[in-house]
Amino acid sequence: MKKIRKPSAVPLYGTALVWALYCLIFPLYKVWHFLPLIALGVLSYFGLSKLFPGVEVEVEEPEPEPESTGDPAADALIREGEVALSELRCLRGTIRNAEVQKRIDELSRLTKLIFDDIRQDPSDIPQIKRFASYYLPTTMKLLNAYDRMAFTGADGKNVAGTLEKIEDILDTTVAAYKKQYDSLFANEALDIETDITVLESMMKREGLTGSDFGGPHT
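RE: above sequence
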């Protein structure tokens, strides 16, 4: 969020009123008759601007455009993630339940991590596509329904029961998002495990492990 000054409309309306009164009182059939009118208008506008400087308001700063990965499929998926994150932020601002807000914060964090992973490992795109095509839109649908129902203020059996069910499923959803993010590292973990195994075998063969360290090569 950033603060900007929203100008007051008073200087414009005040200047227009001064001009209208001047036109009613003084003649305007010669060119030089307009000079005092212009000068009076300028003085009125700047004088009123000092008296009525406007108010400071907070506005949300636009999100920077994500850098292109060079892969159209990855870029399209990243943009999809940015739209989802923007909607989550909006829902976070309108839903008043503190516990639900916490779940949305965690869902937003995990969603950002999942989509950021594309930049480091484009091979994860198929997995993230499945996440983006079902889990994410379904989560948005549930949260939007929660927002609408909570906004009505109704306390009937159907509304209260639905709100409670959505609140309950959010914990499961957060856990699912965590597993989704962790699964993106399965290939990397396997590669690292393979590298460790190969490294250990080489060091053992060269006599560089345990009590053999520093001994003769075989």
